[in-house]
């Protein structure tokens, strides 16, 4: 105890002694004592003035229980002239006879302004004499007898050297005896008024006092009773050293211990911190008037009001210094040390042999140790947790209480955050700098901020962060009022309402600033830590809550957890159910901002700056990275790819998309949204309903963006990846892009189907999902990159006002096919060829005719859908829009036989047989503009086609006879003539053959040879089958029924029947039919003149199809017979002449 703080024996001791017997010295009634030199605690030199030693009258606090003898010779402070005036003015009259009360009254006044210097001098010498007289130790033994026996350390102290009282002060917190406790407390009140009254303090700190200019050890010009400020000066020096401020003086270790010990001993009563007491006396009356002194209550009250506007700056400064001392040694806070004493011992927070004692005493170490116990589910007393919360809030309110932040963040504070120190604003400003919102931050500053957030642990209770609490109060009251105040789920609730209409801007900023640091240490989310600490230890090799690994990058543990969260059973170990739910919750929240994903931000810092510097809106940065996936550096591409893969499995990670799509989800996808367990069903549902009326622009754009990202890698489509992973590895190895994988697998399926293999190489589940992917890709040209890239210039030129989606751009390109560039034209032709083979991939057709397909084609296979619709096109129940779409597809099919798979199959032998010259001239991937079909039509008229091909051509002829647009050659050559001769019929678009009839009637008026030839071909075709002439067929339908019912259609048979009936005077045809037939005869006659037979076969066909076929054949037969007879005669004559010549 040689280095102890020797606590002065109070005037109380004199009161005890004087009540027992007067103190005598050399037969004088009043003790005369040589005063001690206040500088060296040594007797004054000879000749120095002698002062009287006052005699106490009463034991403070315990005087009521002791007999009180009033001595006529008792000395009273009130009787001294130098103090009488001050006493009368400042102290109540009832205290005048009690020297202790007078002393306490006078020393708590502002010395320099309220008490005369002579009185101060008297008081100081009076206290000094008390502290140096060993006789009063015996009084301490008497008053604290019980306590001394209970405290073994004090019972072993040697008496007579003043160490006993110092020991009692050291163990003041353990004193239970009321009288002893009051006695020790009152003693400290006197000694702490001046550092020179403390045993050993002056010797240990002499050099530091002089170096720091904290005051002169000799009284000099400065009042000797005001030296309590010296301790305050040393404390500030200690703080400056801890913060490594420029020019800070290193204080000696033994002086540091003395300073901290004084601060610790003054921790229960703010009166004992003289500098703070005088600095905050008025503020105490203003803010803490009703707060009882003792046990640190006044300190805490003042701390709570530290940033009030009415708080004086001097008091605020003193309080800050006190708080900084607490940060260095938690025992400087009486209430915290007392409340947490048993918990510290219980959880061995003071028994770490690897930690230096100085660090072990730091507030941060205590908080981390006890918070670790709480997070591990251990019981920490409520009183201790309450104290911890107060000091965690204190750390978050004032950044300057953390010396590491003051040291390492000095330039950031000066550059960005000066003048914001109150109520945690500077700390949040530094957090914003740490996020990268205000420039770069020093790594040491970043680490200091991260450490402070761990110490304060605001994730466990948002109220610890005052700036956040104040900013988000209105949001919490509206959006999170169902959650208990202080619950960790409040932060989660705020994150769920980020970027919603309930969120306010200030709360949004404070929340993201805090979440940035919470995201970098998984332990700072208490719910996640509680649910996942077992999984983290098992799968990610984590340490304890308050242990960190410098080798572990920020966010690494959470990245490990979410990778395991989405593993399938066959992929190995997975998370527990509770942990997985929490990981998904946090992923959903943090996907709003790439800065909340430490791994993503760390690996993609360069790419974010390169590609996405202008993308500042919520969610745009990740979308930007996904858009530039191929251009990213390898590390960034991997992490973005992994996150995108997770999104495909659980699209709810895209919180902004979920918010935007809420109406569609509620209407169409609520079942899969409620029951979704990592299947990708929700996104598939959104894609399928992308064009519903409930779909808003934000949702549509978000869904389309996700589709566009999916085509970059087949892994980004969860259902496709799951269904086809094995097939891809087997059939399409080394192919990564989804669109290429789809093409590869589709080609395999088509080849297997065409070759009628017994067992398809692509599995059934993959084929089903492949169909879904193909249909989805057909909806937007951007989902087929090769087609999109080939047609970009054409889209800009021809379809710039057409919106993407619903296959509208593709439809626009189809309609402008003749104006497309060669490259785009080829791609569109190939696309149409695929769509005609598989109409389900024709998105516009399937969309427009969806209801008609359900009505007419439920039993048809998918590949026969268009054929079914064509057959029912003229039904009265057919929807006009669908009918129009079917007509478009028919027009397309008739441009090239390759676009009509049914015709192609039926005529595969006839086409090369009759139309090879056309095929020889054709180029790949370009339409033949109906030339092959036109060739087949002519052969149909000549009745030379195979039955299957003839049936298909007959259908085409019938359809094109009703709508001239279905005849590409007619449309090409006769567009101008139709506009000139038949504008009304063309405008009507009734599809009843009126335009064709108009052209036939106006055959003589047609000027263009190409058009005239096409009309003549129509006439020729109509002779082969009356069904090809819809106007004539309608007019003669009744006559056909009556006169030609037994005649089968085709090959001109019914037409011949009608012609014979027309010539038979016994048969009376319908007037309209008779008129139309006569018109046709005239047309055919004209056609025969205009277009004579080009060869024998053509002539023979004209004869055979002529209505006067019998007459012509009779004449021809007679002519042949005549020639035969003449030949016989000529042959005889020739033979005779020849014989005669031989005979010669």
Automatic annotation (TrEMBL):
Keyword RNA-binding attached: no
Q: Where are the Cys-rich GLG repeats?
A: 250-310, 379-438, 440-502, 574-633, 694-753, 761-821, 877-944, 1006-1066
Which membrane topology describes this protein?
A: Single-pass type I membrane protein
PANTHER family linked: GOLGI APPARATUS PROTEIN 1, SELECTIN LIGAND RELATED
Q: Which UniProt keywords apply?
A: Glycoprotein, Membrane, Repeat, Sialic acid, Signal, Transmembrane, Transmembrane helix
Among InterPro entries, the record links this protein to: Cys-rich_GLG1_repeat, Cys-rich_GLG1_repeat_euk, GLG1
Localization (cell): Golgi outpost; Membrane
What is the name listed in the Swiss-Prot or TrEMBL entry for this protein?
Golgi apparatus protein 1
Q: Is Transmembrane one of the keywords?
A: yes
Q: Which residues form the signal peptide?
A: 1-25
One of the record's GO cellular component terms? membrane
- Annotated transmembrane regions: 1111-1134
Q: From what organism does this protein derive?
A: Pagothenia borchgrevinki
């Amino acid at each position: 105890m040689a280095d102890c703080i020797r606590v002065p024996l109070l005037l109380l001791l004199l009161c005890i002694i004087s009540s027992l017997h007067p103190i005598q010295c050399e037969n004088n009634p009043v003790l005369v004592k040589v005063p001690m030199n206040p500088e060296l605690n040594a007797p004054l030199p000879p000749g120095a003035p002698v002062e009287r030693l006052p005699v106490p009258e009463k034991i403070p606090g315990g005087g009521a229980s002791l007999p009180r003898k009033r001595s006529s010779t008792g000395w009273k402070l009130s009787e001294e002239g130098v103090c009488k005036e001050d006493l009368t003015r400042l102290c109540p009259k009832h205290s005048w006879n009690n020297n202790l009360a007078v002393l306490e009254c006078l020393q708590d006044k502002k010395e320099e302004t309220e008490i005369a210097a002579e009185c101060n001098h008297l008081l100081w010498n009076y206290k000094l004499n008390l502290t140096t007289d060993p006789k009063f130790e015996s009084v301490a033994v008497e008053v604290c007898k019980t306590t001394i026996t209970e405290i073994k350390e004090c019972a072993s102290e040697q008496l007579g050297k003043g160490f006993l009282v110092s020991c009692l002060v050291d163990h003041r917190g353990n004193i239970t005896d009321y009288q002893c406790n009051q006695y020790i407390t009152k003693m400290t009140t006197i000694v702490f008024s001046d550092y020179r009254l403390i045993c050993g303090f002056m010797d240990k700190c002499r050099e530091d006092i002089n170096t720091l200019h904290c005051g002169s050890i000799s009284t000099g010009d400065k009042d000797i009773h005001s030296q309590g400020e010296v301790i305050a000066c040393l404390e500030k020096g200690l703080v400056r050293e801890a913060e490594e401020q420029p020019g800070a003086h290193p204080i000696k270790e033994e002086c540091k211990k003395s300073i901290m010990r004084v601060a610790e001993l003054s921790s229960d009563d703010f009166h004992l911190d003289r500098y703070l007491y005088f600095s905050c006396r008025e503020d105490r009356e203003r803010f803490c008037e009703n707060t009882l002194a003792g046990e640190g209550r006044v300190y805490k009250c003042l701390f709570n009001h530290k940033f009030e506007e009415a708080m004086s700056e001097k008091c605020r400064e003193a309080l800050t210094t006190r708080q900084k001392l607490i940060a260095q040694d938690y025992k400087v806070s009486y209430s915290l040390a007392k409340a947490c004493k048993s918990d510290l011992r219980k959880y061995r927070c003071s028994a770490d042999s690897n930690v230096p004692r100085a660090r072990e005493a730091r507030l941060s170490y205590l908080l981390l140790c006890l918070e670790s116990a709480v997070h591990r589910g251990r019981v920490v007393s409520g009183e201790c947790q309450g104290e911890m919360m107060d000091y965690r809030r204190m750390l978050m309110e004032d950044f300057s209480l953390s010396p590491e932040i003051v040291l390492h963040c000095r330039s950031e504070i000066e550059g960005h955050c000066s003048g914001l120190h109150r109520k945690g604003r500077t700390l949040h400003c530094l957090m914003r700098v740490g996020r990268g919102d205000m420039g770069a931050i020093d790594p040491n500053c970043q680490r200091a901020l991260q450490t402070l957030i761990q110490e304060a642990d605001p994730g466990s209770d948002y109220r610890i962060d005052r700036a956040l609490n104040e900013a988000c109060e209105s949001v919490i009251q509206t959006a999170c009022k169902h959650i208990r105040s202080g619950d960790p789920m409040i932060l989660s609730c705020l994150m769920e309402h980020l970027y919603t209409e309930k969120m306010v801007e200030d709360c949004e900023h404070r929340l993201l600033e805090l979440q940035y640091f919470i995201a970098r240490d998984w332990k700072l989310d208490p719910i996640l830590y509680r649910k996942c600490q077992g999984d983290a230890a098992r799968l990610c090799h984590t340490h304890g809550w308050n242990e960190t690994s410098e080798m572990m990058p920020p966010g690494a543990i959470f990245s490990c957890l979410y990778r395991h969260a989405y593993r399938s059973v066959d992929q190995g170990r997975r998370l527990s159910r509770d942990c997985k739910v929490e990981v998904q919750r946090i992923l959903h929240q943090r996907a709003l901002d790439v800065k909340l994903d430490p791994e993503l931000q760390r690996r993609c810092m360069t790419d974010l700056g390169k590609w996405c510097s202008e993308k500042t809106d919520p969610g745009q940065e990740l979308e930007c990275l996904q858009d530039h996936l191929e251009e990213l550096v390898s590390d960034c591409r991997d992490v973005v790819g992994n996150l995108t893969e997770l999104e495909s499995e659980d699209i709810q990670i895209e919180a902004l998309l979920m918010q935007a799509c809420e109406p569609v989800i509620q209407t169409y996808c609520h079942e899969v949204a409620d029951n979704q367990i990592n299947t990708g069903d929700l996104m598939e549902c959104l894609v399928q309903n992308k064009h519903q009326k409930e779909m808003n622009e934000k949702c549509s754009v978000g869904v389309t963006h996700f589709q566009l990202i999916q085509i970059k890698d087949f892994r980004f489509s969860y259902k496709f990846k799951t269904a086809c992973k094995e097939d891809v590895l087997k059939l399409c190895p080394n192919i990564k892009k989804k669109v290429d994988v789809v093409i590869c697998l589709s080609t395999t399926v088509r080849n297997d189907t065409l070759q009628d293999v017994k067992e398809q190489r692509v599995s059934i589940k993959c084929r089903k999902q492949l169909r879904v992917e193909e249909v989805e890709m057909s909806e937007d040209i951007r989902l087929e990159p090769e087609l999109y890239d080939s047609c970009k210039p054409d889209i800009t030129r021809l379809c710039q006002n057409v919106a993407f989606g619903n296959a509208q751009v593709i439809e626009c390109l189809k309609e402008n096919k003749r104006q497309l560039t060669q490259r785009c034209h080829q791609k569109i032709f190939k696309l149409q060829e695929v769509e005609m083979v598989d109409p389900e991939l024709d998105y516009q057709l399937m969309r427009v005719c969806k209801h008609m397909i359900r009505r007419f084609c439920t039993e048809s296979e998918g590949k026969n859908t268009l054929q079914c619709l064509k057959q029912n096109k003229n039904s009265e129940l057919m929807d006009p829009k669908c009918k129009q779409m079917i007509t478009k597809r028919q027009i397309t099919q008739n441009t090239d036989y390759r676009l009509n798979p049914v015709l192609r199959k039926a005529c595969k032998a006839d086409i090369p047989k009759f139309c090879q010259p056309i095929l020889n001239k054709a180029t790949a991937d370009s339409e033949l503009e109906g030339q092959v079909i036109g060739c087949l039509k002519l052969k149909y008229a000549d009745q030379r086609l195979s039955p299957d091909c003839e049936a298909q051509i007959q259908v085409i002829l019938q359809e094109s006879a009703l709508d001239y647009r279905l005849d590409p050659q007619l449309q090409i050559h006769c567009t101008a003539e139709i506009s000139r001769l038949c504008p009304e019929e063309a405008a009507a678009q009734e599809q009843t053959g009126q335009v064709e009839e108009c052209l036939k009637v106006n055959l003589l008026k047609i000027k263009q040879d190409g058009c005239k030839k096409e009309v003549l071909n129509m006439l020729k075709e109509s002779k082969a089958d009356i069904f090809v002439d819809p106007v004539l067929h309608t007019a003669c339908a009744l006559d056909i029924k009556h006169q030609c019912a037994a005649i089968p259609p085709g090959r001109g048979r019914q037409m011949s029947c009608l012609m014979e009936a027309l010539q038979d005077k016994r048969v009376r045809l319908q007037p309209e039919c008779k008129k139309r037939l006569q018109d046709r005869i005239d047309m055919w006659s004209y056609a025969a003149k205009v277009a004579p037979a080009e060869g024998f076969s053509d002539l023979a066909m004209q004869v055979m199809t002529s209505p006067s076929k019998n007459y012509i054949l009779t004449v021809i037969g007679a002519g042949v017979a005549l020639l035969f007879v003449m030949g016989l005669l000529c042959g005889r004559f020739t033979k005779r002449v020849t014989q005669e010549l031989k005979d010669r």
